[in-house]
């Protein structure tokens, strides 16, 4: 039986990245696969929400940058009107938000709380099977799109 997780998704854009940087600051965690993560108490009753900026399928870290520098260098370039070291469509494809510690939240309530925290309503919200998406991504060795799979599940 799949475990469905209330989830919100935003498609990546320069505006979204600048909003993330302005409202949330630097990620609290970064991964070599390109993921950028913030953990914040943004739930409707203060629940911890994990905000995860998902990399594109087949992500490759830009040459000359450490894993920890990518988000800051890219958002600094965007903020000043400069070109990032590589086009955004080679870095991230979307942002996902979900309860960090399996707190049970209704998707519509999660979407409202996340919209308030980020200042931007999600492109999609609903229930997603994280285990299935994670298994597909691992089996493809990162060659599948997590955001596309989320959007497909969320309809």
Description:
This protein has 155 residues and is α+β, with helices and mostly antiparallel strands. It has one domain. The protein has five helices and six strands. Helix 1 (14-24) crosses helix 2.
Radius of gyration based on Cα positions: 15 Å
Total count of strands: 6
The amount of helix comes to 25-40%
Identify low-pLDDT runs.
none
Strand order of the largest sheet: 2-3-4-5-1-6
What is the residue-mean pLDDT, rounded to a whole number? 95
Annotation field: number of helices: 5
Structural class of the secondary structure composition? alpha+beta
| Proportion of beta-strand residues | 15-25%
Distance between the termini: 20 Å
What profile does the largest beta sheet have?
A: 6 strands, antiparallel
Number of domains: 1
Order of helices and strands: EHEEEHEHEHH
Q: Give the overall shape.
A: globular
In summary, what is this structure?
The chain has 155 residues and is α+β, with helices and mostly antiparallel strands.
Which descriptors apply to this entry?
single chain; alpha+beta; six-stranded antiparallel sheet; 5 helices; 6 strands
List the helices and strands and how they pair.
Blueprint lengths: L3 E8 L2 H11 L4 E2 L5 E5 L8 E7 L14 H11 L11 E8 L7 H12 L5 E6 H10 L6 H9 L1
Antiparallel strand pairs: 1-5, 1-6, 2-3, 3-4, 4-5
Helix pairs in contact: 1-2
């Amino acid at each position: 039986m799949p475990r469905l997780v209330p989830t919100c998704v935003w498609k990546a854009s320069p505006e979204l990245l600048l909003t993330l940087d302005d409202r949330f600051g630097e990620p609290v965690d970064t991964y070599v696969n390109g993921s950028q993560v913030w953990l914040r108490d943004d739930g409707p009753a203060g629940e911890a929400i994990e905000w995860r900026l998902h990399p594109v399928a087949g992500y490759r870290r830009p040459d000359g940058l450490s894993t920890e520098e990518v988000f800051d260098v890219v958002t600094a370039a965007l903020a000043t009107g400069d070109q990032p070291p590589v086009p955004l469509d080679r870095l991230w494809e979307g942002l996902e938000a979900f309860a960090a510690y399996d707190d049970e939240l209704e998707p519509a309530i999660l979407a409202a709380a996340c919209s308030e925290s980020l200042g931007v309503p999600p492109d999609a919200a609903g229930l997603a099977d994280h285990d299935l998406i994670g298994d597909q991504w691992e089996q493809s060795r990162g060659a599948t799109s997590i955001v596309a799979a989320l959007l497909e599940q969320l309809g």
